[in-house]
Amino acid sequence: MDGKPRLVWLALLALVVSPWIQADPQVRVVGLFPNAAVVNIDGQRHMLRVGRPGPAGVELVAADSNTATLRINGQVRQLGLQREYTEGFTAPERQQVVIARGQGGHYRTTGSINGRVVQFMVDTGATSIAMSSVEAQRIGVDYRLQGTQTMVNTASAQVPAYRVRLDRVKVGDIELTGVEALVLEGRFPQEILLGNSYLSRVSMRDENGTLLLERRF
Hints:
Blueprint lengths: L2 H20 L4 E7 L2 E6 L2 E6 L8 E6 L3 E6 L2 E6 L15 E5 L7 E6 L2 E7 L6 E4 H6 L4 H4 L1 E6 L4 E14 L2 E11 L7 E3 L1 H4 L2 E6 L2 E6 L2
Parallel strand pairs: 9-14, 10-13
Antiparallel strand pairs: 1-2, 2-3, 4-5, 5-6, 7-16, 8-9, 8-12, 11-12, 12-13, 15-16
């Protein structure tokens, strides 16, 4: 008889405590890289790497450009980009782009100009988007007809250039319209520079080797 009250008390305690123990964090994958992922955990953004412990019982087991395999409170789950693990998280997701630091410490990403796919290198020192005339011709930017001629200084000399306005520039989900750009005659720069005519219109922050761009509403 003496043991029954104790058993009842333990059963009630288990009912109270077990939902708390089993409650999983709200997990959302917002960036994927080889062996790394940017994950939103209960509203906080974290960079997880394979082999390193993560917050709130979340550990990255594996990651590639398509999916992240996570261990969440001991349970292994495979998540794709922008997909939720838990139900009921309905807060609107801001338009964000996650860019990993690459070779030479530069940030490179795929985007588009007027609907044509291009490769950008982020350059906060450039006043505007800059591209070579070779690249402009490839993506159909008629800079001679639509642009205003000017001269710009490069590392070696002054070169003729054209100031143009691009209809649409898109990086990830962030598309801006009417973005100023410079087209330099010749093959320089070898990469399209994503300069401040685009970057000044988004929020930007560097978090441990990951560049986060966010659309300003």
